[in-house]
Amino acid sequence: MLFAKAVVFVLETFLGLFSLALLLRFLLQLVRAPARNQLSHFVVALTDFVVRPARRVIPGLLGLDLSSLVLAWLVEFVLLLAVLMVRGADLHGDLPVLRLALLAGLNLVRLGIYIIIGATVVQALLSWVSPGGSPLAPVLSALTRPLLSPLRRWIPPLGNVDLSPLFLLVACQLVIMVPLAWLESLLRLF
């Protein structure tokens, strides 16, 4: 049992981080984040070995690099499958595979929300510590702008403090706690 926990930990760590990098690559391209920064270079260097060959098989759509997104989903699917196999789950039949596929998609949505949460928190901290002085500021701004801009139109600053990141964080947590948790509970194998 202890060995199985260690294997699950290693799988979740490395495959989870790789899935995060693939999803981050997709999101950075989706929001047209500046490509000349350390984060973008790191993500591309980490994932290029698998994304470039996948582009030959998985076409882009409307200028989006779908290969990164599909690979992130595939890594999540393999991770879930491997964890269940290590735990000794019975995976016979078609329904468990469909559940795994849907759970992998839910995990990607959750991971995307966590990326937004992290970007929002780091962006808020950097705005207090080093306003506009960080090389990551344009990337974080590109990731959060599509969600913060509508909120900023509705929520005025209070005493020169922008409260829209706080409302975004609350909304993200609510999405994770209610609809995602409910869908996941419907799909859980055990």
Identify the notable features of this structure and list them briefly.
mainly alpha, 190 residues, globular, 6 helices
Q: Care to describe what's here?
A:
- With 190 residues, this protein is mainly α.
- Helix content is 77%, strand content 0%.
- It contains 6 helices and no strands.
- The protein has helices at 2-30, 38-57, 66-86, 95-129, 137-154, 164-187.
- α1 (2-30) crosses α2, α1 (2-30) packs antiparallel against α3 and α5 (137-154) crosses α6.
- The protein is globular.
- The two termini are 17 Å apart.
- The mean pLDDT is 91.
Task: Give the topology string: H per helix, E per strand.
Answer: HHHHHH
How big is the Rg?
19 Å
- Strand content of the residues, in percent? under 5%
**Largest pleated sheet:** none
Tally of helical runs: 6
